[in-house]
Specification:
alpha/beta; eight-stranded mixed beta sheet; cytoplasm; rSAM_sf; 11 helices; 4Fe-4S
Amino acid sequence: MTTPPTPAALRHPEKANRPDNPIPRKPEWIRVKAPVSAEYHETRNMMRELKLNTVCEEAACPNIGECWAKKHATVMILGSVCTRACSFCNIATGRPDKLDPHEPEHVAEAVGRMMLEHVVITSVDRDDLEDGGAAHFAKVIKAIRKSSPHTTIEVLTPDFLKKPGAVEIVVEARPDVFNHNLETVPRLYASIRPGARYFHSLKILNEVKEMDPSIFTKSGIMVGLGEQREEVLQVMDDLRAADVDFITIGQYLQPTPKHAALDRFWTPDEFASLKTQAFGKGFLQVASSALTRSSYHAGDDFRRMREAREAKLAASAAAE
């Protein structure tokens, strides 16, 4: 008698019984080419060899072909399974993986092999860990600093909700950029980001600046979830009040029919207008386009942000 195969685990079990939301056809300005380059496959094979996860794959990023062809990949630490269940996110949810004690060294090796000038390290949420994974972030930063001392490091962290002292652990490891995304406007948190708290996330970004003003801070939101333009502008004001240096604004793309429904596609002109507004509010750097994601062109944007800060400080010194 043949034993029937075990059914594959659901990637998003919490969404299985939700009604389907139709996925609209993408407009011309969002369509991208399928990844086929040799460099793409080299990057993919290296990640497999080193047993590393990437948010590029797990979150189904539309820019993966372009970025991996340039051997730019955003490493996702702390496993591939998230303890949260945000309605917009394509990362698997459920019982989290065990921490890999060798992951910091593997990440550092990947950075060295790709000869990265700038690297982005992100993670799943790990509400099951006492520090939310903060110490693991610090170990990864230190491992990269040891093997690739000239590489600048950007971390994109979870919110460390109810994890006292976690933010301090990451800040003490001194990343060059501390990124934590607000994701959407406060009105939509209950449906889009139910496990998080808008003002807690703002507080994290403000605390990083208070602890170490030399660290650049960064945050991002998606549009297309039902927010109004005025609400987006208010998020900009809230971020500037927290002294955040860099904002990213990108189009939400609905991963599956079970995810949050896409309200509309914002046009290129609307993204350009948001960029102008954000620079006018005092951000050092702004990335605003349909395909913008937190780590898209992160190295180039970091250099521009650093130059903008230097110019601002020089102008301030000259005025004194």
